[in-house]
Amino acid sequence: MQDIGLDKLSQIIYEYCGLRYFDRLSILKGKTFKRLEELGISYLEYCAYVKKNVSEMDILVELLTINETYFYREENQLVECCSILLPQLRERLKDRPIRIWSAACSTGEEPYTIGMLIKETGLFSNGQVEIIATDINKKVLQKAQKGWYHRSSFAFRRIPENLMEKYFSIEEGGYQIKDSIRSMVQFRHLNLINEEKVGQFGFVDIIFCRNVLIYFDQETTKRVIRHLHHNLSNGGYLFLGHAESITEMGLGFKKVDSDKTFYYRKELD
After folding, report:
1. Torsion of CA 63, 69, 70, 74, to 10 degrees
2. Which of 83, 100, 139, 254 has a CA that sits 20 to 30 A from residue 24's CA?
């Protein structure tokens, strides 16, 4: 009965957020059994419970999602974006702000890093670049919005010291991102496989969706990339993790190789 319940739960999870546990039921059990013990119910009963209680799906997502991230992650991509692509977009898009989307932003290190590097260019006035950060995990979004990180956090293991001194203040045993950077980022809850919600998101010029696709099967990967493609402006750019590739999928992107990294450009309609 437990295996039947786990099978059913894996199907619910896959349909909701695209995470595949069909052939990893022992891992799924390891991530969820304490929650079921707290509730005192079986896996079959839990499947019904999740469907009836919307807030429980949020708890389940918290148990399943991996939120490993840090400031200044994959430096070469960040430098390429802020020193090469943003100045080009500034010249091309003089009549509106440039919009950058940090998809699966976790606890906020990625969008805040982008904000700091934009400030460092000195090319943009307030409001000329908009950063939108989304995640499916509401709990990490709450932390991201606060912008406070513990002093011993691994989040700081790569960030240059000058950025730490310039954009953080020391508060309560940790570091608080300054309002000049916090104000640049809008945080929103979003499920990347929800076509309707993603479709309402609006056009953006650059998307960072790094180290997300590695958790999806090929079908779900194609589904998510189609959603991102729809929201990306013509000639816009997509950054993925170094272990992720969509080159052979024929989804309307052209790979761009620079000296130290690669990314994708949306082909013109």
Report:
1. 180
2. 139
Angle between helix axes 43-52 and 25-39 (nearest 10 degrees) is: 70
Handedness of CA 42, 48, 50, 55 (dihedral sign): negative
How many angstroms separate the CA atoms of 146 and 140, rounded?
A: 10
Among 184, 199, 204, residue whose Cα is nearest residue 98: 204
CATH number, position 183: 3.40.50.150
CA distance to 29, 33, 149, 234, per residue, from 2 (Å): 10, 11, 39, 49
- Indicate the average pLDDT of the chain: 93
Q: Are 216 and 240 in contact (CB under 8 A)?
A: no
The range of the structural domain enclosing residue 173 comes to 75-266
SS3 string, 146-174, reads: HCEEECCCHHHCCCCHHHHHHHEEEECCE
Burial tier of 16 (Cβ tally within 10 Å: 0-12, 13-18, 19+): middle
With CA atoms as reference, report the closest residue to 97 among 144, 132, 122.
132
Which amino acid makes up residue 27? I
Note whether residue 69 is domain-resident. no
pLDDT range class, residue 18, cuts 50, 70, 90 = very high
pLDDT of residue 2: 61
CB-neighbour burial class of residue 38 (10 A; exposed 0-12, middle 13-18, buried 19+): exposed
Co-location of 52 and 163 in the same domain: no
Q: Does the structure show a pLDDT above 60 at 131?
A: yes
